Structure formats: C-alpha cells, structure tokens
Amino acid sequence: MTPEELVQHLGLQPHPEGGFYRETYRSSERVICADGLNRSASTAIYYLLCNGAYSTWHRIRSDETWHFHAGTELHVHELLPGGELRTHRLGADPSETVFQATVQAGNWFAAELAHPSSFALVGCTVAPGFEFSEFELAETELLLRTYPAHDALIKQLART
User: Fold this and answer.
1) How far apart are CA 124 and CA 94, in angstroms?
2) For 8-35, b where at least 16 C-beta lie within 10 A, e where not — what string?
3) Which residues pair with 45 in a beta bridge?
4) Among 29, 95, 127, 135, which residue has the least CB neighbours within 10 Å?
5) What pLDDT was estimated at residue 57?
6) Burial zone of 130 (CB within 10 Å; 0-12 exposed, 13-18 middle, 19+ buried)
7) DSSP 142-153
C-alpha cells in the first residue's frame, strides 16, 4: 500500500507532532499514577511518517514503546538526562534494526525516516495511557541550551 492508501485504509488523521495517527486501543482499566492522576492503564496508536514528515521534539509522562509494522527504517532519537543521545533504529532488517524500542517517560524525543522520501508505519503503546494533557512540544532554544552537543539534530527536527 502507498502512504496515502494507508491513511485512508487505517482512518489516520494528522498528528500535532507531525505525521498521521489513529488511536486503536484505550484500556478501560484505570491506574493511579505516582503523581496521583487517574489514567487508562495503556493506550495504543498507529503512527505513519511519510513524504518527508518527521515527529518533532516532544515528551510525555509515560514510557512509550514503538513497534515497527511496515515501510523503511525509522530513527527515534531520545535525549537522555545526562546529555547523551540514544537513537533507536526501527525496521525490518534484524541485522541492522530492531522491531521495537522504548522511550523512557519524561525524555525528549523525535523521529525521522532514514530515507525521507519513503514511509514507515509503526504502532506506539503508552503505559500508563497517553493523555494529550501530558503531551509537551519542545521549545527549541531550551533544548539547544540543555543539549548543546546535539545542536544540528535538534534544529533539523524542530518545529519552531
């Protein structure tokens, strides 16, 4: 399928961080988080990047596991608290990539296609479940001051 056919077939809509998505699961089971908030135990989405789109720098309050489904290699860049960069390479070639990877709660992250003219369809599972109220887009200047060693990548995947 083409990316356009996937958008239509899966009922995807534009995501504020870039790309397309559709929530496919929201647990009816509720959990009380350490901060006292009551949330779904888990959520899952389809997420599609195509046509040069990328997922800009953002963070959430939960762990997020990315699952590769189709397309070409996807890089999920995660900025670690000590200033390091971890790049998860998702794809279908087990000698070069992994089928799934987890971004730790609270870490800034962004994603891009290894080949911008291609596409990647992934699933993202969040536990405790995702809430847009806990979704934070990064301020580029703050990231640049906090992670100066990764200046070029931060700018490349920034929205502002």
Assistant:
1) 19
2) eebebeebebbbbbeeeeeeeeeeeeee
3) 23, 124
4) 95
5) 96
6) buried
7) HHHHH-GGGHHH
Residue 80 tokens read as 């670690």
Q: Using CA atoms, how far apart are residues 56 and 150, in angstroms rounded to an integer?
A: 14
pLDDT in tens, 75-110: 999 999 999 999 999 999 999 999 999 999 999 999
Q: Taking the model in full, what pTM does it have?
A: 0.94
Residue 128: is the preceding peptide bond cis (ω within 30°)?
yes
Token pair, residue 157, equals 């995947």
Instruction: Decide if pLDDT at 12 tops 70.
Output: yes
Retrieve residue 150's tokens.
Answer: 């990764």
Beta-carbon count within 10 A of 42 CB: 18
3-state secondary structure of 5: helix
